[in-house]
From TrEMBL:
Organism: Dyadobacter pollutisoli
UniProt entry keywords in alphabetical sequence: Membrane, Transmembrane, Transmembrane helix
Top-level taxon of origin: Bacteria
The name this protein goes by in its record: SulP family inorganic anion transporter
Domain SLC26A/SulP transporter: 13-402
Amino acid sequence: MSLTKNNLFSNIKYDFPAGLVVYLVALPLCLGIALASTGRSDLLFSGIIAGMIGGIVVGSLSGSSLGVAGPAAGLVVIVVNALDTLGSFEAFLLAVVIAGILQVVAGFMKAGIIGYYFPSSVIKGMLAAIGITLILKEIPHAFGYDADFMGDEAFDQKDGQNTFTELYNSVKYSSTGAIIISAVSLAMLILFDRPFMKKIQLFRFVPGALFVVMFGVVLNLVFAGTIPAWTLSGDHLVQLPVATNASEFFGFFKTPDFSAITRVEVYTIGLTLAIVASLETLLSVEATDKLDPFKRNTPTNRELIAQGIGNITSGLIGGLPITQVIVRSSANIDSGGRTRLSTITHGTILLLSAVFIPRFLNFIPLASLAAILLVVGYKLSKFSLYQGMYRLGKEQFIPFIVTIIAILSTDLLKGIAVGMVVAIYFILRKNSKHSYHYVKEEHRDGEVITLILSEEVTFLNKGSISATLDHLPDNATVIIDGSKSLNIDYDVLEIIQEFKKHSAPLRNITVETKGIDAVEAVGGH
């Protein structure tokens, strides 16, 4: 697979359709996250603002070719608590600006290097878990049960329900019209994904997701005229705020309350947002780079700076905090996006549609959009991913599975934390076994055992070296060779010295050391 790099528009035939699909995915997510975060219909546009900034501003500044930024479900709880603490949305916007400034500072301080320390097994577990979560969370919307907001990722929901009770409710309170629309939409998406359909010129530039949305609108209008009981309305449709004039439209934009600059809580919330948003961004960057068919690497420090500028801009004009998000990034990749033009395109379409066609967008059934997200979820959690991880052995497979279970039963960041603990355990376990090379030889005067220490011997190797020395046979000669070591931690030197001076003589073990001059110095402490 080749990639044209002449200019930003060289891959427009791939990036524009992908941007359009990302827009269709992002629109309900922006609105759903805004409603869940603020609980106010008059602030729904804050999600659209965040989506536009994530696409246009962050997309223009980022070094990520396929990552898409916007409002994230992982920040909902923080936003809700922040609004309760600060008492006003305008004061909260100031905290968003401060969070952005902190992210910019972190980027210039090279804090993006943290992103390189997430184990591959945990990142792949995160991708699989998000895929399963998407499927489980979108089934209710496909059935016409839209009590929970679109884009929720947490197991426990704000309405007291959880992922599994929501599945039961979706069957109990299902809508025939929604089921028909989502089923036909799924069938169409599967058809459009077939190789023979991609040979048709029209479908190379116009994505199948657009036809699915248009079909859902038409079919719902047909229901309205023929079988009113099947018609979807109200909460079952996109609900984009509609302005009757320019003044009302500009009223959707808010500015920060700078009088709150002296409040300690503003800085506390700003710091919290900066940390969580940065972590989610770095996780998404790692996951997106793994999905990238061209295997490009995103400069993480530049990404933090771009996200920071995005959050400063979003906070200044009334938007929610933003991060890079894997669902939209994955949709971008699956739709054939190649460069950041697709991200910029999705943000531009969000802006133009909010200005010119909000009434028409409000005819779109959530059931059609749920079908698109179900397909995205399936592609993130294919069975082949599990097979591949299983073949890599338990040191990769166990952290992978634990990460999935933890994310599904809690939320993204908590699940990642649990997965990291398990992955680090296996890393330490493996590291402890590779601190030396054990050579045993038979001589006339008895056994001669040589322990050749590795280049780097740290406190992590202390346990394995200590256990090996304890299990040496009595009456043997032991040569501890550190001549190839660049560094030996004090902890390990201390163990060698203790063994040489105290334990070895009691067992008639002769100990010789090579290239470990510091051993004698340790004995003097």
